[in-house]
Automatic annotation (TrEMBL):
SUPFAM superfamilies: Cytochrome c oxidase subunit I-like
Taxonomic superkingdom: Bacteria
Annotated keywords: Membrane, Transmembrane, Transmembrane helix
InterPro entries listed in its UniProt record: Cyt_c_oxase-like_su1_sf
Key word Magnesium present: no
Transmembrane segments: 5-26, 38-57, 69-88, 94-117
Protein name as annotated: Cytochrome-c oxidase
Upper lineage: Bacteria, Bacillati, Bacillota, Bacilli, Bacillales
Keyword Membrane: yes
């Protein structure tokens, strides 16, 4: 679980910085929120999930951890794609798709918190 999170996180990092670089070169900052969330939910959060699961393997080997992995890795691309296309096209219905993606991510984060409270000794 730790290794897969770290590998996925560097894919998001690459996409995030490439988008940032592109925005800077073409001087079009409309996708700043997509860039920021790709970096923060994709790179920073997933790298932290990966490191935490590496140091706490008991937390990594649970059904909740697997479920959270999929909620995060379905929710983030759905949310990012919907927000990005919505900004480009102005298509208002995509806001609800972004909200669905965001809800998946939030449920996953709450499960992650529950998992850590249950599995990591204080
Ligand atoms: C070489 C790498 C990067 C480049 C070229 C880059 C480029 C940019 C650009 C052009 C903007 C828009 C600035 C504006 O609206 O005036 C921006 C905003 C932002 N970036 Fe990056 N970025 C990079 C890496 C990162 C990373 C690693 C993170 C987070 C971990 C990050 C988080 C943010 C945030 C939160 C904003 C929004 C700031 C605001 O609106 O006040 N960026 N970035």
């Amino acid at each position: 679980m730790g290794r897969i999170y770290l590998k996925v996180s560097v894919v998001y990092f690459s996409i995030g910085v490439l988008l940032g670089l592109t925005m800077g070169i073409i001087h079009d900052f409309r996708l700043t929120s997509v860039h920021a969330h790709l970096n923060l939910l994709g790179w920073v959060s997933m790298a932290l999930f990966g490191l935490i699961y590496h140091f706490y393997p008991s937390a990594a080997n649970t059904q909740i951890a697997k479920l959270q992995f999929w909620l995060h890795n379905i929710g983030v691309p759905v949310m990012m794609t919907a927000i990005g296309i919505q900004i480009w096209t102005g298509e208002a219905t995509l806001v609800s798709v972004a909200v669905i993606g965001s809800i998946l991510v939030v449920i996953g984060v709450l499960l992650f918190a529950l998992n850590l409270f249950k599995q990591v000794d204080s």
